Amino acid sequence: MSEASERATGGGRRAVAGEAPDAEAAHAGVPDAGANFAADDRFAHLRGTAGEEQIQLDKAERRFIRRRSWKLLVQLSVGVRRKLLLTAIFVVIAQAAQASIPLIVAWAIDWGLPRMIEGQSSGMWLPGLSYIACAVIAGVLIFHYTRMTAEASQQMLFTLRGEVFRKTQALSLDFHEDYTSGKVISRQTSDLESLRELLDGGINSLVQGVMFMFFTGVTIWIMDIHSGLILVAALFPIAVLGRWYQRNSEVAYRRTRVSSAKMIVHFVESMTGIRAVQAFRREDSRSRQYRRLAADYREDMVRSISLFGVLQPSLMLIGNVTVTAVLLWGGYRVLEGDLGIGVLVALVLATKRVFQPLDMIAMFYNSLQSATAALEKVSGLLEESPTVTEARHPRHLNEARGELEFSQASFRYAEDGPVVLHSLDLHIPAGQTVAVVGRTGAGKSTLAKLLARFYDVSSGAVTLDGVDLRDLATADHHRHVAMVTQEAFLFSGTIRGNIALGRPEASEQEIIAAAKAVGCHDLILELPEGYDTDVNKRGGRLSAGQRQLISFARAFLADPAVLILDEATSSLDLPSEALVQQGLERLLGNRTALIIAHRLSTVAIADRVLVIDDGRVVEDGAPEELASQGGYYAKLDAAWRSSMGA
Ligand SMILES: Nc1ncnc2c1ncn2[C@@H]1O[C@H](COP(=O)(O)OP(=O)(O)OP(=O)(O)O)[C@@H](O)[C@H]1O
């Protein structure tokens, strides 16, 4: 059995890294975060981005998501672990130094003061020097570990940012059609921002706070066991409170991630579709919808922050009650003569200080919950895998003639969706120009998308020069098959840069030759800065026809054997249409071309016309031949001619 026929046949089936047998999953950056769970189908509904909007999770589901998130964090820490370890050591020493300050105060009062009174100078300078030494050690170490944490966290975020971008670029079209760019933007911006807050300041405050509390707690135990016991008793209400906060804020923050993504999706759609919004006067209704989504987000945020509002003062209350207990019990024992006054002062000082970092830790916990919710979403996104992948042992085609063949090719967008192309058999000889026409929704673009390999057929095969597209090396496919899309998208930058996208290594002469070939050289020279004109700047903005010509030049430079063209439906004025038509004819040359045609002039230059209806070829022949047969094409041809007054 060939590799192609062994493949899964469900077109459009979304894959996650855990189950995709491709090179993508083994990418060196961040390997798939959910592979361990791949065999466990209980979590299929949570794999990848599938369960992203599920707010309530049961215990096992939480564990699955948590593990995926933590695994991602661990993977991100590769390369900065030494730095993190060193940071941890510095934090421990710095906090030990800081925590010993109450001990030094007790020592100064109970040991140093009596000696000073007796005239011994060591009573003053020994505690004084120790105090300064501790402060200097803590200061120097804090400086170093703050810098190291920033470096480590920024490095982790840098890796993650790159990984999210790489992954979203690599994912197949079916993913993007489902997931929308708004959600991707939300993952890349607000989710990574939450993580940044945690990694930048949060972890530092946690380790610092915990260490400080630990060492201060130890000094309290060293000074007085009674006070140590009071401190331990205070840990119980703290633990109960922490558990309550964790349970509630986890759900609350998960909700904020979902509502924030919805808000960003709406924003991005309104902005990218601003022409449609304004054309249909939807500004007010879009604004109202946005306000509603923003209000949901506001409420979710207020709910999660309110939880923090309960946590923080409750911790402070526990802290103050503990200090009072230590003071009262210690004061009583001072009166009884069981405790030195210096020790009591140090104990009260230390007990007060022991709770200080709780504030910081609570803040950390807050950003941890927010970042955990974000990490859940980002790790899910990274778990996705492209459905269209390169074969394990790809076949190479150095030169291509451009012969295309659809053999019993069927396609459906979703496993359980309707069949869009039905067992299509179609042979297109090298060099032929084929115009595809048909009613809207007939399947014309789908044919083009299969050739461009945005999708793979659900069954059957599509071949180029006899090589199944699924077996063809991706680089060779990209080199031999180029698609010019309707919107003729231009990237920010110069005209030159936009044409060079066709072949980045092309020389200046080749770029100019391509522009001349398709007939846009003169119009480029008329722009304010010629080939250096920025397409987004005033004066560089091009008309629809001009943009088409630039995209033709780009395709000409790429020099593919097969050209797929989704002709723009928007009508151009007659001079522009003539220019575009000439450009197209020059671009076509001897290439094989499949053009989704919307203009009579384009069909007229085609060798062959295919009429598609409901995913089947219903007419196939030369344009003049079909025009005389009285079918769909004949009617279309007549309608075009009458609209042109011919
Ligand atoms: N991403 C998608 N997911 C699910 N179904 C889709 C998707 N894209 C297209 N379809 C469906 O597939 C069928 C064929 O669509 P296709 O875009 O190929 O038609 P078309 O002939 O190019 O139409 P048009 O001329 O309007 O562009 C339609 O029924 C359409 O609803």
From TrEMBL:
GO cellular component entries: plasma membrane
Molecular functions (GO terms): ABC-type oligopeptide transporter activity; ATP binding; ATP hydrolysis activity
Protein name per the record: ATP-binding cassette subfamily B protein
Pfam family, one: ABC_membrane
Keywords annotated in UniProt: ATP-binding, Cell membrane, Membrane, Nucleotide-binding, Transmembrane, Transmembrane helix, Transport
Family annotation (InterPro entries): AAA+_ATPase, ABC1_TM_dom, ABC1_TM_sf, ABC_transporter-like_ATP-bd, ABC_transporter-like_CS, P-loop_NTPase, Type_1_exporter
Localization of this protein: Cell membrane
Region span, Disordered: 1-25
Transmembrane segments: 84-109, 129-146, 203-222, 228-245, 307-332
Record organism: Nesterenkonia aurantiaca
Domain of life the protein comes from: Bacteria
Membrane topology category: Multi-pass membrane protein
Protein family: Belongs to the ABC transporter superfamily. Lipid exporter (TC 3.A.1.106) family.
